[in-house]
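Exercise 3.2. Students should predict the tertiary structure of the chain below and write it as structure tokens, then compare their answer with the key that follows.

Predict this chain's 3D structure.
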Amino acid sequence: MDKKRLEYYKKKLLTRREELMKTIARTEEEGRQADDDPTVDLADKAANSYTKEFLFGMTNTDRVILNQIEAALKRIAGDDYGVCANCQEELQQKRLEAVPWAKHCISCQEKAEKGQL
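Answer key:
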């Protein structure tokens, strides 16, 4: 992959990483605020608990993507970016455009999701 293309994806990954870090921080703060609500009604406490669990579930998903972005940035630094980690084929640009942190080509990703990889 040429340097210009690599730089484009690196910028895209860094932007997405920054967005995720802000989202995670905001979500954690909202979760803490749900705890601070001095409600006495049992239904309100249950609703707050559900909201908190929902927010932290979203945070966990964001953290997984954040880790994948960090790994992609390391692959860029190590000249391994844009190549499938399994079959060593070059990833399609459409795939990288949709999921710039992808480490597998579509066929290998399907195998991984089925537990065959």
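Discussion points: The two ends are 25 Å apart (CA to CA). DSSP finds four helices and no strands in the chain.
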